[in-house]
Amino acid sequence: MTTDVEVVQHETVEINGCCKKGPGYASPIEAMAGPKESLIYVTCIYTGMGRGKPDYLATVDVDPKSPSYSKVIHRLPMPYEGDELHHSGWNSCSSCYGDPSAARRYLVLPSLISGRIYAIDTQKDPRAPCLYKVVQPDDVIQKTGLAFPHTAHCLASGEIMVSCLGDKDGNAEGNGFLLLDSDFNVKGRWEKPGHSPLFGYDFWYQPRHNTMISSTWGAPSAFTKGFNLQHVIDGLYGRHLHVYTWPGGELKQTLDLGNTGLLPLEVRFLHNPSEAIGYVGCALTSNMVRFFNNPDGSWGHEVAISVKPVKVQNWILPEMPGLITDFLISLDDRFLYLANWLHGDIRQYNIEDPANPKLTGQVFVGGVFQKGNTVLAEADDGSTYQVDVAEVQGHRLRGGPQMIQLSLDGKRLYATNSLFSTWDRQFYPELVEKGGHMLQIDVDSEKGGLAINLRFFVDFGAEPDGPSLAHEMRYPGGDCTSDIWI
Known about the structure:
Distance between the termini: 39 Å
InterPro entries: Se-bd
Strand content: 35-45%
Family: Belongs to the selenium-binding protein family.
Number of helices: 6
Keywords: Selenium
Protein name: Methanethiol oxidase
GO molecular function: selenium binding
Number of strands: 32
Largest sheet: 4 strands, antiparallel
């Protein structure tokens, strides 16, 4: 397998929803008026399912006027097995808007388990992307010591930055941030020597405030084996946010979120680049924590949203957390959406007052205590209940909502249901057996409200090579979880 191919010169053209001046949009509000999505790329996983197949990138048609609406129209298999494709990002986004030589062309696919990083060319044929280049893990380890790559963000410099969760042996102490040049060559670590975080996971930068903030999942040696509460007690999972100078790479503050902030995962600033406010979803304690810049220049934090645990019967614990595994913010910074993977609901909050979010919409799309499962939820009076979950096109919904993606105009929310193959097998074994799926939720972006679109259902249980798991989603023209403004 040749892992490098001929470099094709970038062209300054209007492609993939990008503007002529540079990739992306001049502002978040301008992005909201961008073209309606017609395609979405989905990372699909066979790793951990025992099928002997490589993971792949699926192209899904999301144009309601198309005859192939709600169908997988192309599959790009990776050249190796055992990757565990997970998150994805772009080589260039709105942070490069002022650079007419840049183009949003390559989708970056870090492989959480193998450590490979794939660059996928979406420009030649957006409906049928092709492999451009493979960054091999040996090269990354040799030059940086980093492994278990997770989140990829493009930088205004044209470089790509990737958070890595540990060293090759799965130790959290080896984590940090990988820097690739514009052609995906390994440059080194981004952070200054001695400024690596305690644990790694997600990150987001806000250049006007010269700040990057990263979150903390846990040690790969722990989470790759499945979730074990003892590992939390043993200190193998995180509860901190790390505040860095941007672009300097110096760790200037560590925020201890305490017992209300266990397993802080996705982290997002408000899209308005002048705002020094953001949120992080803390999975295990199921809180949304707001972080903010204090008048003295330090950063503070407080719990902004709490999802109460539910008393349950016939489960591994007497109480079940919601397990907030993903969230996002609409481009106008009006609404926050979160997914409770175990409880099975997606929620919409109005955050026009960022310190006081108001619940404005909620819809159940699965969950451990939905009707037909063995687990029962307990009400305050001791009675038991299960949640009604609508069938979609005759399909009973499996698992719970995991990754979510919002349309640029804020009116359509897409959801997949795989978290990580090992955890899927542990909490939703039916997913590994029958595969994942993708849903679309209609959003009332004026008054608030969520409703399942019954016309849309992508069944990854019916794939040609057998049921697969579906995770991250990206539009060719960018979105609210990949584009950053400077």
